[in-house]
């Protein structure tokens, strides 16, 4: 079976590799560099399992920038292109997804289009009406950056927003490629599947925000946040997972998905969804204030990425902290190996770690690192479980 996958990011690439075990997969991307890397069996994103599988596994996988050729003869067209949140419209920018859908309806009318990109509630119904095609369905993705292929091989569940034979056929392909057994399958309406994705990510953001606010309280009262978190986590209804404080929830998904869900509530009474979004802003204000209170002349930011094992720093929470520190008139320098530019957000980028440490009066790290052990006395982090 031929499958076209649009987008060579975390979602698209991990799905392409998963499906290429048993199908002929053509991955499509606008970036010639990404296409060339994938054709050379090199991962354009940082993900150890993806890197290993591309180098060692027998995969029927090619990449191209030619979308029409990729769609020709395809049974499924999988769309995993970016849907950034647009603050002007209060909605995701779904233009890239819409463009692929319209091209697929035109160039591959018999193919089923599977949307993996996160979209607003009602998007699939709207696109079915706009294109006159019912061969469009939503299959949300639940993965972690740096663990994308692993999470597709061991999915917590597979959700498909349709109850058609094609929906079940696609779900079977995902099960076929997975390593896990007895994967929960859920077939729902289109709007229900779209809601599952947004509510799931907003719940995760809410949990992050809760433990961050707990940490803010403990820090302001000179209490041990770890002891408090460990104590409440022993309640099995709460658990000891996903409880490590940070500078705020960030990354590509949680900030935009929470705002999109809030926008979907425009005509529905709510309090909690607004509080989740506002809590993230408050946490960054608090963190920046704690750093400024140390009266540093130069603050060093150690890594922009949200988590270890990731090279993605889109919408990372530390960027909000940087803006606030600079607004207070404090000089900021950045150490980030994933950056090639000499500056970022108006701050100098220092590629030499030793020089970065020497220049920084306070070293700010969203996640702790052994690289900073020799300057532990000037490290500011709220990563209380990271290197214990």
UniProtKB/TrEMBL annotation:
EC no. given is 1.1.1.22
Pathway listed for it is: Nucleotide-sugar biosynthesis; UDP-alpha-D-glucuronate biosynthesis; UDP-alpha-D-glucuronate from UDP-alpha-D-glucose: step 1/1
Indicate the segments forming the UDP-glucose/GDP-mannose dehydrogenase C-terminal domain, all copies: 300-387
What InterPro entries does the database record attribute to this sequence?
A: 6-PGluconate_DH-like_C_sf, 6PGD_dom2, NAD(P)-bd_dom_sf, UDP-Glc/GDP-Man, UDP-Glc/GDP-Man_DH_C, UDP-Glc/GDP-Man_DH_C_sf, UDP-Glc/GDP-Man_DH_dimer, UDP-Glc/GDP-Man_DH_N
Q: Where does NAD(+) bind?
A: 29, 34, 83, 118, 145, 256, 314
Superkingdom, taxonomy of origin: Bacteria
SMART domains from the xrefs? UDPG_MGDP_dh_C (SM00984)
GO process terms (BP): polysaccharide biosynthetic process; UDP-glucuronate biosynthetic process
Keywords recorded for this protein, A-Z: NAD, Oxidoreductase
One GO molecular function term of this record is: NAD binding
* Residue positions of the active site: 253
Catalyzed reactions per annotation: UDP-alpha-D-glucose + 2 NAD(+) + H2O = UDP-alpha-D-glucuronate + 2 NADH + 3 H(+)
At the top of the EC hierarchy, this enzyme's class is oxidoreductase
Positions of substrate binding: 142-145, 197, 242-246, 250, 306-307
What the record says about family reads:
Belongs to the UDP-glucose/GDP-mannose dehydrogenase family.
PANTHER family for this protein: UDP-GLUCOSE 6-DEHYDROGENASE (PTHR43750:SF2), UDP-GLUCOSE 6-DEHYDROGENASE TUAD (PTHR43750)
Q: What is this protein called?
A: UDP-glucose 6-dehydrogenase
* Source organism of the structure: Sulfitobacter mediterraneus
């Amino acid at each position: 079976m031929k499958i076209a996958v649009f987008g060579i990011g975390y979602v698209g690439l991990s799905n392409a590799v998963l499906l290429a075990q048993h199908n002929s997969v053509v991955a499509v991307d606008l970036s010639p560099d990404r296409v060339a890397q994938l054709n050379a069996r090199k991962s354009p994103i940082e993900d150890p399992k993806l890197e290993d599988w591309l180098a060692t596994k027998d995969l029927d996988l090619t990449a191209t920038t030619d979308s029409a050729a990729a769609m020709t003869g395809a049974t499924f067209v999988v769309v995993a292109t970016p849907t950034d949140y647009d603050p002007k419209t209060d909605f995701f920018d779904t233009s890239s997804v819409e463009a692929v859908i319209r091209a697929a309806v035109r160039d591959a009318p018999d193919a089923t289009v599977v949307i993996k990109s996160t979209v607003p509630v009602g998007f699939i119904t709207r696109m079915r009406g706009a294109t006159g095609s019912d061969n469009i369905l939503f299959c949300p993705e639940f993965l972690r950056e740096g663990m994308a292929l692993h999470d597709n091989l061991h999915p917590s569940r597979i959700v498909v927003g349709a109850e058609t034979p094609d929906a079940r056929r696609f779900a079977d392909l995902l099960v076929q490629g997975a390593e896990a057994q007895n994967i929960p399958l859920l077939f729902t309406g289109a709007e229900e599947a779209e809601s599952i994705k947004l509510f799931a990510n907003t719940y995760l953001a809410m949990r992050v925000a809760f433990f961050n606010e707990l940490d803010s309280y403990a820090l302001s009262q000179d209490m041990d946040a770890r002891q408090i978190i460990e104590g409440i986590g022993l309640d099995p209804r709460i658990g000891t997972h996903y409880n490590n404080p940070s500078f705020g929830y960030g990354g590509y998904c949680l900030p935009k998905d929470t705002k999109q869900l809030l926008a979907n509530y425009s005509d529905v009474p709510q309090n909690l969804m607004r509080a989740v979004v506002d809590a993230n802003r408050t946490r960054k204000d608090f963190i920046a204030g704690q750093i400024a209170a140390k009266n540093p002349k130069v603050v060093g930011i150690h890594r922009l990425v949200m988590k270890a094992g990731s090279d993605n720093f889109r919408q990372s929470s530390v960027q909000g902290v940087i803006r606030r520190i600079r607004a207070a008139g404090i000089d900021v320098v950045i150490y980030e190996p994933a950056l090639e530019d000499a500056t970022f957000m108006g701050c100098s980028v220092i590629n030499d770690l030793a020089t970065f440490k020497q220049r920084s009066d306070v070293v700010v790290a969203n996640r702790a690192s052994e690289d900073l052990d020799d300057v532990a006395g000037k490290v500011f982090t709220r990563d209380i479980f990271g290197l214990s």
